[in-house]
Design brief:
Layout: E1 19-23, H1 40-49, H2 54-61, E2 62-63, E3 68-69, E4 80-81, E5 84-85, H3 93-97, E6 100-104, E7 110-114, E8 124-130, H4 131-138, H5 141-164, H6 172-180, H7 194-197, H8 206-227, H9 231-238
Antiparallel strand pairs: 1-8, 2-3, 4-5, 6-7
Helix pairs in contact: 1-2, 5-8
Length: about 240
């Protein structure tokens, strides 16, 4: 399926010092008709909340190759129940930071913006604090840190792909579409499935598991990169 990009319509004109406050009144309207993308850290946190391996979690609770949380037929998030979010302590960053969105530029500069609210939202916006105050309340720093770390790995993967084939960049949009259309429960890459790459137990500290996973991925990338010659070099060597 096609997923809309809400962030593309956000004006990122705020910093951590900007005035901002938001009081959620649990109307649950923000938990419907959304594509919540997740990274390996978020998959791990949610899986452990449910007592599952990441492999089992991806099979049961995700779509788009393991990158998006599954929705019910009525459009509700798969974790929404009568009381609200059934995984609230381990909810993903997109839910945790709502109604804000975060952007980090290629130069590492961070900014924030407002997502468009639901027309009937019962959430109350204000200026009683700052963006930083709100972030502290939502305990987002571990999610920011690991999102950034996995983002660096993702960029390295893209660089290796482009090194192997200079035309890979032109195919990126088609690749994303192919992943989004994968059957629910399938995984696009072992990168998303931590328990398939490193030996863990359900009792291990998620942060320590992530450390091991990132090291394992980095080791794999170094090995792959060392075996790749740019396409131009391959052609030159054949002349």
């Amino acid at each position: 399926m096609a997923y809309g990009d809400l962030v593309a319509r956000v004006d990122f004109d705020m910093t951590r010092a900007s005035s901002f406050s938001y009081n959620c009144h649990a109307c649950k309207r923000c938990c419907r008709n959304k594509a919540i993308r997740v990274n390996p850290y978020e998959v791990l946190r949610l899986a452990r909340r449910l007592g599952l391996s990441t492999t089992e979690f991806i099979e049961r609770k995700t779509e788009a190759g393991g990158t998006v949380l599954r929705s019910a037929e009525d459009g509700n998030c798969v974790f929404l129940n009568e009381q609200g979010c059934s995984v609230h302590p381990d909810r993903p960053l997109a839910c945790r930071i709502y109604p804000l969105a975060r952007w980090v530029s290629a130069e590492g500069e961070e900014s924030f913006g407002h997502l468009a609210p639901h027309p009937q939202t019962e959430g109350v916006y204000g200026n009683a604090g700052t963006v930083q105050d709100y972030l502290d309340q939502q305990v987002v720093e571990p999610y920011f840190r690991n999102s950034d770390r996995y983002g660096v790995l993702y960029d390295k993967m893209l660089a290796i792909l482009e090194k192997a084939d200079p035309h890979e960049l032109d195919r990126r949009q088609d690749r994303r579409k192919e992943i989004d259309e994968l059957p629910s429960g399938s995984v696009a890459s072992a990168f998303m499935d931590i328990d398939s790459m490193v030996r863990t137990s359900l009792q291990d500290d998620p942060d320590k598991i992530v450390e091991r996973h990132i090291k394992e991925v980095e080791k794999c990338l170094i090995s792959i990169d060392g075996e790749i010659m740019p396409a131009e070099s391959i052609r030159d060597s054949e002349v």
